[in-house]
Amino acid sequence: MRIGIVKERRPDEMRVAATPDTVKKFITMGLEVNVEKGAGVSAAIPDTDYEQAGAKILNKASNVLESADIVLKICKPIGPNENGVPKLDEVSLLKPGSILVSLMEPYKDRELIELIAKQNITCFALELLPRITRAQTMDVLSSQSNLAGYKAVIEASTAYGKAFPMMMTAAGTVPPAKCLVMGAGVAGLQAIATARRLGAVVSASDVRPAAKENVESLGAKFIAVEDEEFKQAETSGGYAKEMSDEYKKKQADLIAATAAKQDIIICTALIPGKPAPVLVTPEMVDTMKPGSVIVDLAVEQGGNCPLSEPNKLVTRNGVQIIGCANLASRVAIDASALFAKNLLNFVEPLINGMENKIDINMEDEIIVGSMITKDGEIVHDAIPIGV
Description:
The chain has about 375 residues and is α/β, with parallel strands linked by helices. It has helices at about 20-30, 45-55, 60-65, 90-95, 110-120, 140-160, 185-195, 210-215, 230, 245-260, 280-285, 330-345, 365-370; strands at about 1-5, 30-35, 55-60, 70, 100, 120-125, 165-170, 170-175, 180, 200-205, 220-225, 265, 295, 315, 320-325, 350, 355-360, 370-375, 375-380.
């Protein structure tokens, strides 16, 4: 059996789906590993490191994809009709009957998923992993969000024209920066921790009651309208529910009063399968001080601030609004190491080492929860019709 690793070709993607460490683990499991030449260069992994770990380096992506029984990727494969990406139809190169494990954006791109199904690929979307204890070591969303939350604060500190910590000097005292984090999931909590380490005074908001304790444990002030709707604002999977218009209005008024006093706002709030909620309106931006900075991690899903644009700096009345798409990729070395380990942990239960074959257990809730195509069909209810 053979694992295939290709270079990621989507814009601004610098991560790679395997490291020399995970290659070694796959080989000890009895697998062969083929890696496309140069696949790890942007994550500071030369081909020689893969070779020393036991992988075989192939010159072309087509050679890797056509021969792989299991293809591991960071981003969904490129289809035949995509614009803005290299003209390489990765889907058609996948070997019929093989397995693909990747982030797939399953809520967005039914057409691509239909092509993958037609190719008779068994495809697993890592976004759909169930939130259970056994799946935590496979959870790429959490591992990558941690790095994105950290990097968001670093991006903000670079753009901000002042220091984060309070500084007392003979020439006077520099006050600490005030930082508001919108959304207290994995990315938000890491943003809180990073901003606190840098010396900022931090507050945070989230609609989930469970977030309050997490926020306060990190030394930040929790901001929310804590009414009856707030008490029931979390799904069984731990994600935020979409709130009523009435609650949104009350929360917006509270956030507006808070935002006007902030130097930094980090936006991280997402709802799976839906556009990002608007939390920082243009009117709120207009109340902020010139020199303030907003970093919007939700920009790819429409943004928590509607003024943000993917990978662009927008300035409004002296406030800088940074739309940060795929921030984890900007920490490519660590992000690749974590993502690759998540993939290893996902693949390991699929391999029957005794019989040297792939063994997919359809009674495993991790398998059932993340599998989106099998035997030529789309098999997951999360894939929208007509998208």
